[in-house]
Amino acid sequence: DGEVHINELKNGNTEMFWNPTSEVRRQRLKRHIVLFEEQTDFESERLWQHVTSAINKGDQHKATQEKFVLEEEQRNAARERRESGTDWKPQLFRHDVVTNEWHYKYEDLRPWDPLNDIAQFEKNGILQTMERHLSTRMSNHKTTCINSQITRHKRSAKDCRRRKTSDQPSNHSQNTESSCSTPESVQELSDDDGEYLGFESLCAQCGKEMNHLKEIHSAVLSLQRAQQDIHR
User: Fold this and answer.
1) pLDDT given at position 145
2) What is the per-residue DSSP string for 157-210?
3) What angle, 0 to 180 degrees and rounded to 10, lies between the N-to-C axes of helices 204-231 and 136-166?
4) Counting CB atoms within 10 angstroms of each CB, which of 8, 36, 230, 231 has the fewest?
5) How far is CA 27 from CA 20, 23, 93, 117, 230, in A?
6) Where are the annotated segments for Disordered (predicted)?
7) Contact between residue 175 and residue 130 where contact means Cβ atoms under 8 Å apart
8) Distance CA 126, CA 94 (A)
């Protein structure tokens, strides 16, 4: 988001190559950096801190020395692994023996789905996508929970009808509302939430998941409103 110039060494001429407008600068992605004290020893900012410090101070000689120290440590570690027969096992990358190239293990090359994908984030070096829909595991668990409640209500209604049939009601009792009620049709019920079912609340796991989804939904609506304001 800054100016870029081309310097012609032969004749000393300088040419503007890139000069971003204020609109381009406003569209810059927000940069997220892991706090220095939370970084591991081999993360770039911590690993190269002495080289970076020397470069910022304009001490190219010191920067070269620090770089040499790091490279020697890596060579020694590789030599020790080779001598001990220890294989190097990368955490985040895999080697393609056919193309002799390294590939990120968790790359997600599918197109972005604006109707389902909410945000993409990195955690412990692994890129993940937050999605709108319930996971298959939670969906199956929720369905099982709902079906068990429907079964209990059907059994309760069946027992209720059996009691009414076995009784010999008087004229007075026929004009009085029964203490039992027939459950609503299953097709008319919504399975979006335990509160909508008219049943007892869902299990704690389902309830916790539904609350989490409501929070995500509220966040999505807020983001959509912000996007609309930006477009306007």
Assistant:
1) 64
2) HHHHHHHHHHS---HHHHTS--S--PPPPGGGS--S-HHHHTSSPPPHHHHHHH
3) 130
4) 231
5) 11, 7, 31, 21, 10
6) 150-189
7) no
8) 14
Average of pLDDT values for 140-167? 62
Output the CA–CA distances (angstroms, integers) from residue 99 to 58, 93, 103, 111, 168, in the order listed. Answer: 40, 14, 10, 25, 85
Q: Residue 13 forms beta bridges with which residues? A: none
The torsion angles phi and psi of 95, rounded to 5 degrees, stand at: -100, 125
Three-state secondary structure call for residue 19: coil
Sign of dihedral through CA atoms 69, 74, 79, 80?
positive
Pair of tokens at residue 64: 């070269």
CA 72 to chain centre: 38
This prediction has a pTM of: 0.39
With 60 as the cut, is the pLDDT of residue 179 above it?
no
Asked if residue 141 lies in contact with residue 187, where contact means CB atoms within 8 angstroms, the answer is no
**With bands split at pLDDT 50, 70 and 90, how would you rate the model's confidence at 137?**
very low
Beta-bridge mates of residue 128 = 121
24 has pLDDT over 70: yes
List CB contacts of 189: < 8 A, sequence separation 6 or more.
Answer: 196, 197, 198
Give the DSSP per-residue string, 50-91.
HHHHHHHTT-HHHHHHHHHHHHHHHHHHHHHHHHHTPPP--S
- Answer for the pair 74, 41: CB distance below 8 angstroms, yes or no: no
